Amino acid sequence: MIEAQNLTRQYGSFTAVSGVSFAVPEGEIVGILGPNGAGKTTTIRMITGFLPPTSGRVTLGGKDLFGDSVAIRREIGYLPENVALYPEMRVEEYLGYRGRLEGMERATLRRRLDEVVERCLLGDVRRQIIGTLSKGYRQRVGLAAAILHDPKVLVLDEPTVGLDPKQIVAIRELIRELGRKHTLLLSTHILPEVELLCQRVLIIDRGRIVAEGSPEALRERWQGRVTLTVETAAPQPGAEGELSLVPGVEAVATEGEGGTRFRLECQQGSDPRAAIFRLAVEKGWTLVELAAARASLEEVFVRLTTRDADEASEEAA
Amino acid sequence: MRGGLAVFARELRAYFYAPLAYVLLTFFLLVQGYYFSLIVAYLADPRYPAGKPLELFFGQTIFTWLVLIFTGTFLTMRLISEELRQGTIETLMTAPVSETAVVLGKYFAALAFYLFLWAPTLVYVAIIRAHTPVDWGPIGSAYVGIVGIGALFLAVGTFASATSKNQIVAAMLTFFCLLVLFSIGLMESLVNGETAKKIFGYLNLWQHMDDFSKGIVDTRRLAYYASVAGLFLFLTTRALEAKKWR
């Protein structure tokens, strides 16, 4: 649906985004993940047509975004990062204004306005002045305005930033629901959000895409070793040596003082839990815990986005 | 077109939502009323012709210019700079409306408010009319001048407002430009050459307003306002587009 080809954006001599290419297929929720200042907002602004790329192209349904800009903008619903609204207007009035900007028919607008107010749970603030609303409500007003004209593509820049936990849950729920009908591009620096919502993730760092794929695939691919935790009921002398002989186990470390808890680093792709269980039966150990820890996307993210810094410091040393 | 109308309507309402509008309306009426009463008191003598107070109200004094320059500055300073400051420009520019529609929508909202500001001065006409017969021609042409020069000044202000996200900077830029625009014509009396005198004479806004207040309408002057206003509005759209590239 949206395709970014080789997007590059420079601000003076500073390159904010460099050679970013990706595609958002119709009906998918794609997340752009990256630390602050990685180039997420710049990328999003180029996708929505607010910022022309220094080089590269954005196409939407095959049409060039900057060629037929005004017509194409109708296909996109956009919630900018800072959710700028006019503080002096009432919620209803603002939504009406946005609808008219989108060129909506009066009757359609009235119907859709009721729909989005209900959908974004704005019923009780409908007549309220935007300037008096809490951040959470304002975020929802922004979201309501973005989906008002029923765009094919929704672009949300950090939709849950600055919200309290309850509001975050509500907004995520809404986003997930919207994802069923719309093609959605979402930027965030919050990992669980991506794992929760997105079918595909782009990890951006320093203006480049450093990884791309489904959250599972990313986790899979970038997962270091699977880590197993083994605990026995009583201390077992020599267990450390025995465990290290199990195929697939690379290293064993005793955890804590009791000598009952072990941490096993396993080879990539191997899961020796069954072998460990048999070993325990054979040796007569009573296992009280046998757990595999999967590398979280968080670990992947931290590794990917700090790698360059590490390499740089290694080079320097 | 529809998008431009939406911008116009929002902008016009925004004037009435902000305290600035009421402060401006109040001061405008106070100051205009004061000038008018001064003029009337001064001319309250059978020796002067009956229509004279209105003539002086619209032209031939510095009062008109103070009012025109200040309203031109205050009415436009937040027009675009506020959108830049708040960041609402982002949703505006990603909506399916062209820069031209946005600029025109905002400009005409300012112009509409400007007309609203001037509307109560019709009362002065009515007051004079109640005491003595008035000549409607010069009054009509005076309003043509007020609208024409206002349209020019507001276009300059609209442009200045697109150059900064700071209203004060926009206001200062507008004020400076309007002073230049106003005083350039006064050079007429300072230069010597025949051609130079002629050129500055064409641009002499003071002279223009004088003539308008006396009932002289020169369409070349209206063409001058329209084309300079058009130029500034065009520059405004370019300034908005240029914002993207920085």
Which terms would index this structure?
heterodimer; A: 317 residues; alpha/beta; Rossmann fold; Alpha-Beta Plaits; 2 domains; six-stranded mixed beta sheet; 11 helices; elongated; disordered C terminus; B: 246 residues; mainly alpha; 0% strand
Task: Give an overview of the whole structure.
The complex is a heterodimer of chains A (317) and B (246). With 317 residues, chain A is α/β, with parallel strands linked by helices. Chain A folds into two domains: 2-221, Rossmann fold (3-Layer(aba) Sandwich), CATH 3.40.50.300; 224-293, Alpha-Beta Plaits (2-Layer Sandwich). Helices cover 37% and strands 27% of the residues of chain A. Chain A has helices spanning 40-47, 69-73, 91-101, 106-119, 135-147, 165-179, 191-197, 215-222, 239-244, 273-283, 297-316, and strands spanning 2-11, 14-24, 29-33, 55-60, 63-64, 76-79, 153-157, 183-188, 200-205, 208-213, 227-232, 249-255, 261-266, 287-293. In chain A, the strands form three sheets. In chain A, strands 6-7-8-3-9-10 form a six-stranded mixed sheet, sandwiched between helices. In chain A, strands 2-1-4-5 form a four-stranded antiparallel sheet, covered by helices on one side. Chain A has a four-stranded antiparallel sheet with strand order 12-13-11-14. In chain A, helix 3 crosses helix 4 (106-119) and helix 4 (106-119) runs antiparallel to helix 5 (135-147). The longest helix of chain A has 20 residues, at 297-316. Chain B is mainly alpha-helical and 246 residues long. Chain B has one domain. Helix content of chain B is 79%, strand content 0%. Chain B contains 13 helices and no strands. Chain B has helices at residues 2-17, 19-43, 52-58, 62-76, 81-86, 89-94, 99-118, 122-131, 136-161, 167-183, 194-202, 205-214, 219-245. In chain B, helix 2 (19-43) packs antiparallel against helix 4, helix 3 runs antiparallel to helix 12 (205-214) and helix 7 (99-118) packs across helix 13. The radius of gyration of chain B is 19 Å and the shape is globular. The two termini of chain B are 28 Å apart. The mean pLDDT of chain B is 88. The A-B interface holds A 11, 45, 48-52, 70-71, 73-74, 76, 78, 80, 82, 84-89, 97-98, 100-103, 145 and B 2-3, 5-7, 9-10, 13-14, 17-18, 86-98, 244-246.
